[in-house]
UniProtKB/TrEMBL annotation:
Annotated Gene3D superfamilies: Cyclophilin-like
Function: PPIases accelerate the folding of proteins. It catalyzes the cis-trans isomerization of proline imidic peptide bonds in oligopeptides.
Protein's name according to its UniProt entry: Peptidyl-prolyl cis-trans isomerase
Protein family according to the UniProt entry: Belongs to the cyclophilin-type PPIase family.
Annotated organism of origin: Lichenicoccus roseus
Catalytic activity: [protein]-peptidylproline (omega=180) = [protein]-peptidylproline (omega=0)
Residue intervals of the PPIase cyclophilin-type domain: 16-169
Length: 169
């Protein structure tokens, strides 16, 4: 389980997503509907539609995070759904295993992209939406191919083979 400082990780199967990586490995993400109901519903909906199947982790920075969820693999794409209103909170912290919603400089621009933390990043607390926690398979997150340079853009990135709500997996 991740090291979040909150205790709302008992929702169970309805709030779990199962991510299978192309190179092998199963990751379970517990969505935090209590903190970010809009973002949690978005990830649940897109996962149920198969949106994330074959999508890459396009930006991966050692000691920071792995970002995916962009169907173009460029970091500038998203779903056809409208962008989400931010759901920032100080009730949870960006610690190892936390899952956040990626966005542009505009706070209300999260759509389909998300990131998983390799390590704590207090500078993100209250600035980005925390949508979930990795509760199983963090060792597989640790194996995701890293990018080069400060941008973390990955050449030959690792892919999500399949991502579904646990109830449908």
């Amino acid at each position: 389980m991740s090291e979040t400082t909150t205790s709302a990780t008992t929702a169970g199967e309805n709030d779990d997503l199962i991510m299978e990586l192309e190179k092998g490995g199963r990751i379970v993400i517990r969505l935090r509907s209590d903190l970010a109901p809009l973002a949690a519903e978005r990830l649940r909906t897109l996962s149920a539609e198969g949106f994330y199947d074959g999508v890459v982790f396009h930006r991966v920075i050692e000691g920071f995070m792995a970002q995916g969820g962009d169907p173009t693999g460029s970091g500038s794409g998203g779903s056809k759904l409208p962008d989400l209103k931010s759901e920032f909170t100080n009730k949870a912290k960006f610690v190892r295993g936390a899952v956040g919603m990626a966005r542009t400089a505009h706070p209300h621009s999260a759509n389909s992209q998300f990131f998983i933390m390799f390590a704590p990043a207090p500078s993100l607390d209250g600035q980005y939406t925390i949508v979930g926690d990795v509760i199983e398979g963090m060792e597989h997150v640790d194996q995701i191919k890293r990018g080069a340079g400060s941008s973390g853009m990955v050449s030959g990135p690792d892919k999500i083979a399949r991502m579904r709500p646990a109830a449908a997996a």
